[in-house]
Amino acid sequence: MDPTAALLDVARTAVVLLVVLTVLVAVHELGHFWAARAFGMHVDAFAVMMGGVRKTDLSSHLERPLAPSARVWLAGWAATALVLAGFMTHNVGVLNAGLVALGLAMPVWVVTRLEALYHSRAGSGVITLVKSWLFALGLILIATRFQGVASTQVLGLLSVASLVGMLFVYYSPLKNKPEDSPQGHGLVEVGEEAQPVLFRPLLATKDKHGTEFSLLLLPLGGFAAIRGMHPKEDGSEVRIEKGFYSKGPVARLVVLFAGPFFSVAFGVLILTGLFAVVGERKLENVPVVGSVGKDGPAATAGLQPGDRILSVDGEPVGTFYDVVVRVRDRVRTTDGQAASWPVRLEVQTPEAPVRTVTLTPVVDKAPTPVLDETLEITEQRKVQAKLGMSPTDRMVPVPLGDAFGRAAKQPVDLVASLAQIAQRPSRASETIGGPGTIAQQTSTAASYGLYGILTLAGLLSISLGVLNLLPIPPMDGGQMVVAFVELLRGGKRLSIGVQHTLQTVGFFLIVALSLAAVTLDIGRFSGGP
Q1: Angle at the Cα of 459 (from 454 to 460), degrees rounded to 5?
Q2: Residue ranges for the chain with pLDDT beneath 70
Q3: With contact defined as beta carbons under 8 Å apart, do 80 and 98 qualify?
Q4: Which of 35, 134, 300, 519 is most buried (CB neighbours < 10 A)?
Q5: Cis status, amide bond into 474, omega within 30 of 0
Q6: CB atoms within 10 A of CB 272
């Protein structure tokens, strides 16, 4: 792909993904917000996105002035220009130099400045960065054993790790947040004094109920901060006026369930509207190229949408399925590596003579669904050879009742898929993906325009709702289990020790699942074993 087009695709994918996720999380939190209000709970804040901007000027407490921030920005833009120059010219040396400057050297400079501002122990910020780098390298090692991994991929992941590390250091004063203080309040130790540090939203306003509605800095989600949601050692959370735990287990169950319900309902609503108004995408079983995957064998061979496939290795074809079955089993294993061999296609391009092209199919890294003779997906899965192209399709509107039924079936199918993974964990590598998989799906969806983006939003919203119902604290489903147990106990709260144990176990389960998804992504996209 042309470097400029690739860069624009990355930018488009990032914008679409961040906007979609921000909207979906806001809808999810809106469910918690409305349900809490309905049961008389006070919501201190409703925020879209996360983080905030530090508003407290700490420069007056410095022992000596820092270099002007303009120099940091200038160096950052210079490093960014170096990365772009290497990317645009396909110069790996220049690209790697830019990634080292932007993703490694610049973060070290930034965190050392933050160390001085926050009066942290010298080197503590750099240690945080190093931990982030070691963590990223560990994931690469687990996923690929450093086989088939390019230097740019390693430096790219280290740059992402640097960003995470810098955010931890930037928001480190919030670790000292005074108990029951408003959102965004933190402390730093200046000598023997505690200096308040305030992080504020980009935009904020309060309603008549005293709830602050705000737009924060980082497009990483959002939250509805319900008063009194943090258990206390002495159990006093149940006595907080209009607090979460001041209400009975039934009220808490409904408030917790409202978020996932809103997510699933919003996703079903989006898909219902798409199916009923725009229609459902139906593949046409004719040997005509509908779309060509970026950088795939078909694209490399110069195939274009509208090209008609006349024969495969000299054998005439009458349907697109004929092309699929002549190619998909061309898989052989050599030295433990699955590969295919060249196939010859006779292609007729509109208003052009018939030509013959030779291309080598790519082989799946993991089993994928097998298509039947009508191009419908079957339950059978296997490793297949593919040409990187899809058949033509058309949109067929669906009656409203059927549209709702099809949309409502999506969460049911997702639950069934999760149940199958629980029964056969080996299938996780075929169906689970992390941020990289979501980004790839977003890129594909964006290529289909608004229809693709809305379809992705609907499916992601349903996934967000269903996954939040998993019985793992501190997710909604895990907290619902706690509330249900307390309901069975006649409203009596679980001991603080049991609550802490459940939260700790749940936290490590979530971390383990997240690491597994990221590791699968790294192995999937790097070509590692």
Answers
A1: 95
A2: 1-7, 143, 425-431, 433, 522-529
A3: yes
A4: 35
A5: yes
A6: 21
> 340: phi > 0 → left, psi -120 to 50 → alpha, else beta; which?
beta
Backbone angles phi, psi at 222, to 5 degrees: 165, 180
Short-list 456, 476, 445, CA closest to 21? 456
Of 486, 491, 488, 468, nearest to 478 (Cα)? Answer: 468
Residue 359 bridge partners (DSSP): 343
Domains of the chain: residue spans and CATH: 1-42+224-279+399-529 (no CATH), 53-200 (no CATH), 282-396 (2.30.42.10)
Measure the CA angle with vertex 284, ends 282 and 288; round to 5°: 140
Residues 6+ apart with CB under 8 A from 359: 297, 298, 300, 301, 342, 343, 345, 387
Q: Which residues contact 94 (CB under 8 A, 6 or more apart)?
A: 82, 85, 86
- Torsion sign over Cα 281, 287, 292, 295: positive
User: Distance between CA atoms of 493 and 408, rounded to whole angstroms?
Assistant: 36
- For 64-98, the pLDDT digits (tens) are 888 899 999 999 999 999 999 998 888 889 999 99
For 91-143, write each residue's pLDDT tens digit.
Answer: 889 999 999 999 999 999 999 999 999 999 989 999 999 999 998 888 788 76
Residue 428 pLDDT: 64
Q: How far is the C-alpha of 4 from the C-alpha of 90, rounded, in Å?
A: 11
What is the rounded CA–CA span in Å between residue 8 and residue 2?
A: 10
Share of the chain residues as helix, strand and coil, in percent rounded to the nearest 5: 55, 20, 25
pLDDT at 80: 94
Is 285:528 a contact under the CB 8 Å cutoff?
Answer: no
What gap in Å lies between CA 328 and CA 346, rounded to an integer?
Answer: 18
DSSP-H helix ranges across 39-90: 69-89
**Residue written as token pair 């190093």:** 130
Which pLDDT does position 310 carry in this prediction? 94
Cβ neighbours of residue 314 closer than 8 Å, sequence gap 6 or more: 344, 346
CA 300 to chain centre: 30
Asked if 391 and 320 count as a contact pair (C-beta separation under 8 A), the reply is: yes
Q: What is the CA radius of gyration of the chain?
A: 27
Residues 307 and 291: their CA atoms lie apart, in Å, by 10
Classify strands 343-348 and 368-371 as parallel, antiparallel or unpaired. Answer: unpaired
Pair of tokens at residue 67: 């270099």
